[in-house]
Write a structure and sequence with these properties.
- The protein is of the alpha/beta class.
- Among the domains are: about 405-575, no CATH class; about 580-785, Rossmann fold, CATH 3.40.50.
- Strand 4 (about 450-455) and strand 5 form a beta hairpin.
- The model is unreliable at about 1-35, about 355-365, about 440-445, about 490-505 and about 705-715 (pLDDT under 50).
Length: about 800
Amino acid sequence: MLSTLWAAALVIAEPSPRFIQAPPLALMAQAAPEASPETAFQTGMTAFQANDYEAAITAWETALTGFEAADNPIQVTRTLNALAAAALSLSWHGDAIAYASDSATLAQTLDRPDLEAQALGNLGIAYQASGQFAKAVDTYEQALTRLEDQTESAAIAQLYGLLGNAYESLGDYDSAIAAQETSRTMAAAVNAPSLEATAQMNLGGLYSLQADYDTAITWYERGIALATESGFLGSAAYGFNNLGGTYQKLGDYSAAIAQFEQSLALATETGNPMLQATVLTNLGVAFEDTGDLETALRSHQASVAIARRLEAPRLLADALNNLAHTQLVSGALAEAETALQESVQLLATLRQGLADDDKVNVFDSQIYTYNLLMQVQVAQGNYTAALETSEAGRARAFVESFAADDTVSTEPKIEQLQQVAKRLDATIVEYAIVPEDDFTVQGRQRGQAGRVFVWVIAPDGAVTFEEISLAGVDLSLNDQVQQSRSAIGAYGRTRGIGVVQADSAPSTSYLNELHERLIAPIADALPDDPDDLVVLVPHESLFYLPFAALQDADGNYLIEQHTLLTTPAIQLLEFTLEAPTVTATPTSLVVGNPTMPPVPTLEGDLQPLPGAEAEAEEIAQLFQTKAIIGSDATESKIVAEMPQADVIHLATHGLLDYVDTTDRIPILGAIALAPSDTDDGLLTAREIANLSLDAQLVVLSACDTGLGEVTGDGVVGLSRSLFAAGAKSTVVSLWAVPDEPTAALMKAFYAELSQGQNKAQALRQAMLQTQEQYPDPINWAAFMLVGNPAPL
């Protein structure tokens, strides 16, 4: 089976009783003596409970007209919310949003937080169902604030469950688990078995998404048993579906099919077309795994038909992805590409309106549809189209943020990519890792690399393609990358470690092996002149690889043969190539060895960096300025000066593992600066991203500043944040850098820049000069240039 298959139970839906409450009889009697609107409302409730949602809407619209005529705003509010619930059950998401919004607004006017919370709950469900996940989270949180005077209630338990589902849609699994645990505990306390069972099964789904299958099965079985014995068959239907997905991940296909068939029967019995579509595509996946491609195709096609009728974009995108996978296995390549192109377009709509952090998480769970489309195009020999898809499948949130004004197309075209190579007079090498054929996608998990696709774009625009098989390799590609780092001593996480002597260095065999796998197959397409620029576009684990230190069979390092530049995506590089605004004498901001701040999550104190201080003072002299050091280098002072600087050099500790939790989506990374009365001295990646910079070069002369969390959107960390803030290029490190050789390298780098070299050539020469004095790669190969290579 080929890779990039959406797993069963991808969608953890909420089998929730909607936020409908029948109006108290006393209230109805007081509101309308003639009772006709109340009768119509009760008729609608009866129809709703019988799953006849269109009849319910007809009755409730009659009731709404009557309540409005009788000037009964309380009942108008309740009826609008009931209409929202019925519209949701029919997947009429636009109507549901309108009804729920009107209900919430009126409830707020009436100062009825209970009714407002009910309406906001359905509004959140509508937002989530239509792919507006961030809005759903915000709406559920608003609803919870309206009920803050209640310590425990079924409504609060349900809202936490819905909030957990929205977090899951955003890929924020930790927050999702916390919300579902709160929902489960509260539901048990108030004796709400349906909600408790739902939370248990949603917890099962979340653990399954993170490959903790034993825990997942335990939660599913508990939830199914509770739902069944309590008579909530709709909830049990979801549980059987998700349990089937877990068995499928474990390779027990007969058990998976049995669970799916039970789920489909209950979904049909309870009139749940969304779940029917989900289960049908999951059955298709399972039948494909057994080799029954004909039944698999029928199941997927039935799922696509239902999802299309329901106008459910995420469900339709998943069903099309799964259909395409079976078509690919069946050899129907053109049909598979058509399905995947539609799926990609649907996925793009789901990212619209999201903040950057949310886009990163959502795209991280969408990346494999792009990967599968790329495979289909390669199978057809359409290598340039596959390159376009490879580009489209990386740094999407980043590229979309640069093109937020809609004046720039975010859809990469081969002519655009070729133009970047021509403009830079560079050879561009783009890598794409393809998971092993037996990998089944679920959530944000990463499969082991089975193949690597490589495209080389020559300066004249010519494109060559190479497919590299990793079959028969003892170690996975991820492990080879890690071993290559370990082999050169890249262990530490703090700047200031001692120089590694050449005679004590571990074996560099992994550097040779990775050169043989990743560079040798394309060597003939690379330039002969070592001064010619080679742009590397890594993928996933390759972001961690020190390409400069890869060695050929003769022991030559790649940096000795080529001038290197790195970018997460060709399109992102293009955005950094706008004309520089620097003056003849660039303004600079140079910081070294600030008074170290306390770090709550770190055992012990950050050590002073006297070498970084000396480095900063020497570099400041080159720019005819004064280095900011010690207690003067406060976070507030540096942040205030950064927007005016053309060149920013920060020689201090980098904290890759520091987590900024000031927003819903945590971000890794911080730069250590001096604390003051107004700040903590930790300039986080999130804070950097919110700055407005015009710097042509930012150098983070610290440890691990080029690393971060590898996602479908590239590496999310300090370097990414600098580009988001407006920087045109960065020099960052791949490991904890030794103090003395780093100071020597940086001094050489700026000296070369002052002689008119472009930034990539200057970094190469600095590496070579440092290598003469400090031969081992740990002392010179950590730094890489990302972004615009133009001279200062």
